[in-house]
């Protein structure tokens, strides 16, 4: 059943009793017609099937990290279905708050990690280089659904021919614009280049009505947005070497071009006047109709609508191209991985869990459930045989931009978790001080980063 995007929207980050992170949530009941591995092969008495399965497999207990958030009826039903189809598997669910995937590395070292987990894309580069993830080739090559996974995401988690993750949820960082403000300013289409974006921002900007033409992060996590502009200028902030170590490239010409564009947005008076506004403030203000355009992830749509914006006024497109002509964006999300240090029986059981919760049947049921509660955000299902737009009547441009995002998305710059704060401080300096020299600020930031963390990072990640 397709539905119009509603003013009251359920965030895609629905809570479950399964693995932590955005993605698993769900429908009220399980469609009994959904084929499963067991109910499509034989019509035996259910008790006989269960007994047979128990005899074929030794009992296995899988340890999962979960949050304490309550599960809904649908997620409980899905877990029940999984356990009925895999009677030899039991689940030991350990409560972990926050983002448990970020603690996985330390837990593996300490010997108390879960057998499988969902890890954010941000952490995957470091995890793949640290030998804590089990290669999944032997599993995916015998899974008839693997061929339906989008190749771009398969490649993101493949190193030297080894596949380390099955992507679960994908949220692209797009570019959002307020269609109503664009129309009022006489602008008929979103900007395609940095220069067009600046000119459009000038037309939209209206301080008397508290309307900001253009917004970006300036008070926190500035490296998060800033990296997109560096990519669009044709460069990067770091360079990963074949041995897993990194070279810092804070003074790359593309970094300086991106910094100067930031300064131009500021000097032209189209950037938010209050540079202390944080991420949540920007998303809120966009929803209040006070921002003309800004980097904008697909999974922020629901929050913007909750703050009052008409869903039809939310425009999404690829970001304006920089000097290089590129429209590169970051892809966020999470991926299922298996603990390389657990025993083989647990690895095999972990794969049964992953393949169940990664199937087309599961994804379809998940989004069908959301249709009963509103509409989700326009995000990417990392498969080619199903799309979130199959379930809801989003604007046509959403489907187009989600399809386009598959080919221009990439992981965040290598080592971001360790080096991002140094970039953050340099960006803040060039925004706060109009006379700041970008080359000087980023050169000093790189020198400090090399002195304080580069050596330890390279020692930890060298293959």
Please tell me about this protein's structure:
Helix content is 41%, strand content 14%. The relative contact order is 0.18. Strand 4 and strand 5 form a beta hairpin. The chain is globular and about 70 Å long. The chain has 17 helices and twelve strands. The chain has helices at 46-56, 73-85, 104-110, 121-129, 137-140, 151-156, 179-184, 194-204, 222-232, 253-267, 279-287, 301-306, 344-357, 360-371, 396-408, 416-432, 438-461; strands at 60-66, 89-95, 116-120, 158-159, 162-163, 166-178, 238-240, 246-248, 293-297, 314-317, 329-338, 409-410. The chain starts with 45 loop residues before the first helix and ends with a helix. Strands 3, 6, 9, 10, 11 and 12 form a six-stranded mixed sheet that branches. The protein has a two-stranded parallel ribbon with strand order 1-2. Strands 4-5 form a two-stranded antiparallel sheet. The protein has 463 residues and is an alpha+beta fold. The chain has two domains: 46-171 and 331-409, Periplasmic binding protein-like II (D-Maltodextrin-Binding Protein, domain 2, 3-Layer(aba) Sandwich); 173-329 and 414-461, Periplasmic binding protein-like II (D-Maltodextrin-Binding Protein, domain 2, 3-Layer(aba) Sandwich). Helix 9 packs across helix 10 (253-267), helix 9 (222-232) packs across helix 16 (416-432) and helix 16 (416-432) runs antiparallel to helix 17. The model is unreliable at 1-44 (pLDDT under 50).
Count of DSSP strands = 12
**Unreliable segments of 5+ consecutive residues:** 1-44
Which homologous superfamily in CATH is the superfamily of the largest domain?
Periplasmic binding protein-like II
Q: If you consult CATH, what is the topology of the largest domain? A: D-Maltodextrin-Binding Protein, domain 2
Structural class: alpha+beta
CATH architecture annotation of the largest domain = 3-Layer(aba) Sandwich
Instruction: Count up the helices.
Output: 17
How many domains? The number is 2
SSE series: HEHEHEHHHEEEHHHEEHHEHEEHHHEHH
Outline type: globular
- How far the N terminus sits from the C terminus, by CA atoms, comes to 50 Å
CATH uppermost class of the largest domain? Alpha Beta
Strand content: 5-15%
The overall pLDDT average reads 86
Please summarize the sheet with the most strands.
6 strands, mixed
Task: Write down the Rg.
Answer: 23 Å
The portion of residues assigned to helices is 40-55%
